[in-house]
Amino acid sequence: MAGFKQFLLVTGTLAALILAARAQSLRTPWSGHAHDAQHSALSPTASQSLNRIEWRTSMDGLVQFRGNFLAIHYGSPLVTRSNTVIVPVNTGLTNGFLVEALSGASGATNWTWVTDYLLPPHNWIPGLSSALTPKGRLYLPGGGGTVYFCDKPDKTNGTPSFGQAAFYGLANYLANTNAYLTNAFINTPITSDRYGDIFFGFQVTGATPVTLQSGLARIDFNGTAIWVSATNITGDTSMSKVQLSCAPALNNDHTKVYVAINNDVVNAGYLVELDSRTLAVLAKVRLKDVKVPANDASIADKGTASPVVAPDGDVYFGVQENPFGENHTRGWLLHFDSALAQLKTPGAFGWDDTPSIVPSSLVPSYRGSSPYLLLVKYNNYVSHGGDGINQLAILDPQNSMTDPITGATVMTNVLTIAGPTPDPEYTNTAPNAVREWCVNTVAIDPASKSALVNNEDGRMYRWSFASNKFTETNVLNSGTGEAYTPTVIGVNGFVYAIQDAILYCVGQ
Question: What global pTM score does this model have?
Answer without folding.
Answer: 0.94
